[in-house]
Amino acid sequence: MAELHFPLHGPSVNVVRRCGPALSEILQSKFECVAIIEGVDFEEDLPAQQKRPTIVQEKRFEAKLPSGLKISVWRADLTAFRAEAVVNAANVNLQHCGGLAAALSHAGGSQIKRESEDYIKRHGPLQTGEAIVTNAGLLPYNKIIHAVGPELQTQPSGPEVSQAKPLLRKAIRSILDRVKENHLKTVAIPAISSGLFHFPLPLCADVIVSTVKEYYDGPSFGRHRPEEIFLVNNDEPSVREMERACHQTLASRKPMMYSQAAAGKTSGPTVQMGEVRVTLKWGHIEEQQTDVIVNTASLDRDLKNGQISSALLKKAGYGIQKEIREAKPKGKIIVTKGYSLPCKEVFHTFCTEKGHMEAQKILFESVLECLWTAATNKHKSIAFPAIGTGLLKFTKKEAAQIMSHAVADFAQKYPTMMEVHFVIFPHDNDTFQAFEEEMRILKQKASHPSFTEALGHKEELRERKPPTPQISLRGPSDEASREAERWLSGLLKSSGTVTIRNNFILHFGKKEFAQLSRLTKDVCIDESFKNGHAEITVSGDYEDVVVAGLQVEALLCNTQGEFVKEEEDAMFMMSMENVSFERKTVDSQSSKFSNRFSELQKKGLWMSKLETVQNPTLETLFNLKKKQLQDPNSRRMFQRIPAQFCGMVGRIGFQREYAPPTDPAYGEGIYFSTLQKAMEVWKEQNEEYLYLVEAEVLTGNSTSGKPGLILPPAVGTDPKIMYDSVSGGPDISVIFSSYQALPRYIITCRVIQ
C-alpha cells in the first residue's frame, strides 16, 4: 500500500475546505485511493447548524430477515448519520419548515430547498402516502427520500388513527419502492408521522417495523434487496419504541443481538468515532457477515495451528490453506479470498509473542494495516477477533488497549464510513470485560467536541496538526497513488480553466444538466464533442473553477456507478450468474510476465506490473457470443485505457466510453489493435504510466470500417444481417458488442525515455 503526501497552499486550502469530503470520494472512485486530509478544519467554517452533533451514535438492536436484509435500531442525529439515503418526514408541499424536515434542509443547504420547489412547480403537491427522491446536498447521503405520512390532530380520536394507519403503511411502502428503484444499499428511516404530525408513537413504530418485514418477506422487492434498513431517531422515546417493536415483530426472526449470538448476554457498546463505527459483540469469528474477517495466523502459515485459524479453515475449506501458502505478504498481512466464509476477503496477520521487544508495536501496526487495506480495497466492514490473548500471551487488557487505540488512530484520519467489529468468543467473560471497559472509556471521550481526545493521548494529539495542510494519498499500488497525485496536482494547480475529458458525459441526463446549469452562476461551462471525444471546460476565477470542476467529476463518478449497476443487472439477466471478478498480480519470475516484458520492451515500453483478470460471468457471455457468431477463433489484441477505467473493465468488460481512439476513422465502436499499432491509435501525451488491456477479441465476419458507424454495415440488402465487426486494416478491429471481447490481462507500463 503506497502513500504519498500532497501539500496544500494558498487558495487550494479553501477549495479543500469547501469540498474535502467530495474530493475524497472522487479520489477513491477514480483511483481506489484513500485521501486523508490533514490540517484543514471543515467544520469551523460551516454555519452552526451544519456542524457535527455531539450526540454519540448508539446501536440498540439488529436483526436479520430470511431474505438477508438487516434491520437495526439506532439513536443518532440524522443530519450526520451515514447511509446511502435518508428519509425526510415531509409535508405535501415539500416545505421543510419544522422538526426533522427543517433540520435536514438546513444541514443540507439550499440545493434541497431548490429541488423540492422545482418538483412542486413541475408536478404539484404530493399525496399522503407518496414518496419522491432528490439529491442530498451537503448531507452525508447520496439521496433524500421525501415521504408524506398522515398528519393528525393534536389529540387524534380512535377512528382518525384507524383511518391514518393504512396511509402510514402506504408511505413506508413508497419509501421502500424508491429504495428498490434507485438500487440503494442502505437507508435511514425515522419515526415519520409521529412528533409534529401527531401519529401515536407506539403504533407508528409497530406500523413501520411490520411494513418493512412484510415488504421484504414478500415478492414485491424483486431482485434488488438493500443490505440494511436503519431505523434512526435522536430522541429516547422514539428509539425505545422502535426497539420494542423490533423485538415483538422480529422475535421469530432470531434477532442478531450480539448477546443472543453467544451466551444470552447483552451486546457490548457501540462507539462512533468520526465516520468509523466500532461495535463490541459476542460471537464466532468464522460466522461474521462482514466484508473482511481478520485471522491471526502462525508464521508457518499452517491454518490448523491456533483456535481462530482452525475455525476459519474448517468453515472456509482447503482452498484458503492453499492460497495462503502461495500468496505473497503485503506488509504485515496476507490477503486471501473468503471461500465458504460469509465475507469477501480474509486478512491473515502474523504477530509475535509478548516477550518479543516490539511485540506491542507489531500488534498495533498489524491492526492498523488491516484497517487501511480494507479501506483501500473499498470494504465497508471488518471483524477482528481478540488478537494476542491466546498463544501470543498478551493480557486481556493489553490486547484490548492496543487494538482499540489502533482503531481510534485509523478513525481519526479515515474520511468515510467503516464498520469495525470486535468479536469475542462466547463465554470468554474476562476478554469481553476488558474490551468493554476500553470501549466505555472511548465512548465517554467520543462525546467530547474534540474527537482527538478519543485516543487517550490528549495533550500529545492536541498539538498534532501538521504545520502545513496536506492530503495523504493511500493507494493499492505505487501507480495508483501516483495517478491520483498527478490528477490532483493538475486540478489544484490549474489557472482559471479546468478541462474534463470523459465520454460518460454523453450519459448525462436532465438531472445532471440541471446541476451543471446551476454552476454557471459562478463559472462559464462549455460542452463539446469532437472526433468521438466528449469534454467539459470550466473557466472563471480559480477557486470557483476548481470547486465546479470537482462537482462535474462527482457527477461523472455517480453516472459511472449507475452505469456499472445497469450493466451488472444486464449481465445477470443474460447469464443468471452473479457478477464477480478478481485482478491478481502475476509473479515477475513467471514466463507470462517475462514473455510480455520482452515483447513490450521492443516497443519502447517498460512493463512494471502484469495482472490477470478473472470474471466468470464475462467469460460465460463471451462464450455465448462465440457460439452465436459461429466463430471458434479469437484474436489477441490490445486496448489502451485511462487508469480510472481499469477497475471497470475487469468488472463489466469493454465499453466504448473507456477508450475512444484519437481518430475514430472506422466507426464509433470499441477499438482494439495489435501491440504494434496501440501507440498510434491512442496518442495520449505526457503520461507517467500507461495501461494496456490484453483481450481475446471475436471479429467474426468483418469488413472495412468508415467514420460515423454506430453499428456494423449490412452484409447485403437485408439490413438485419450485419457484419460482426469492422476493421482498419490488419492491425485494427472495431466491435460494437462488448461481449465480443474478453479482458485477460491489465498491463501497467512506462515509456522508456
Fraction in helix: 25-40%
Q: What is the CATH C level class of the largest domain, in words?
A: Alpha Beta
Averaged pLDDT: 86
Name the CATH superfamily classification of the largest domain. Leucine Aminopeptidase, subunit E, domain 1
Helix run count: 20
For the record, the count of structural domains works out to 5
Specify the biggest β-sheet: 7 strands, mixed
First-residue to last-residue Cα separation: 27 Å
CATH overall fold name of the largest domain = Leucine Aminopeptidase, subunit E, domain 1
Order of strands across the main sheet: 3-4-9-8-5-7-6
Query: In one word, what is the shape?
Result: globular
Radius of gyration: 27 Å
Low-confidence stretches: 43-54, 252-266, 451-466
Q: Report the CATH architecture of the largest domain.
A: 3-Layer(aba) Sandwich
Portion in beta strands = 15-25%
The total beta strand count reads 29
Structural class: alpha/beta
